[in-house]
Structures are given as C-alpha cells and as structure tokens.
Amino acid sequence: MREGDAAGRLVRPFTLTGGRTRPSRADFTLITSVTAVDPPPEGATRPQPEYTRILRLCAKTIVVAELAAELDLPVSVVVILLCDLLEAGRITVRAPRLVSRTPDLDLLQKVRDGLGRL
Questions:
Q1: pLDDT for 12-35, tens place per residue?
Q2: Contact in structure between 51 and 84 (CB atoms under 8 Å)
C-alpha cells in the first residue's frame, strides 16, 4: 500500500481512509480475529485495491496486529478500513476469548516461588 510509483511518490495512509482519523466502531483490538465473508454478500461492489488486499489476507482468519504488519500500515489505518469492510458485510470479526476472569492462584504462587529462586 505504501509502494512508490514511477516518480517515487508514496500513498499516504490518510488518503487510504479518505482523511478519516477515527474508526466508526470500537469493535477492534490488536487481537481481534478477522475473516473475509465468502462468498461476498449479494450486490457487493468491487472493492478498491486496498480493500481487495485486506480481503485476500483475511481469506484465512487473521488478527488485526498481524494484518497491519502484513500490509505495512499503522494499526489505526487498518482498523478504519476494517470498519468499512465490516459495515459492507465483507468481513466477520470475533473478539478475543476471555480465558479466565479469576487469576490462577496456584500458578501465581509457582511464578513467585520461581522468581524468588533467581
């Protein structure tokens, strides 16, 4: 996305978001899982190149942080683009699963003991 053209110019991230600096939703964290909807919803228009690249990377489930790294774009820009795709019905998102709400006291004790032995 940041590839230079023949004159050496770069596509600036704010141009990819249409100048938007904030996402339209607060669904996304660094570890939110994203998957492209296949087949695309009926009546879906052909996406712009940056969306096409995201959809290709999301063919298999990927987390937001990994997607941003693959695209070589700031996470904030990727989240804005993902919001667009989510609102268009082109992707699904899954929040990270909470493993446990309560700390495992036995595990914490073992960690403390192990650190004490260092």
A1: 777 777 777 777 777 889 999 999
A2: yes
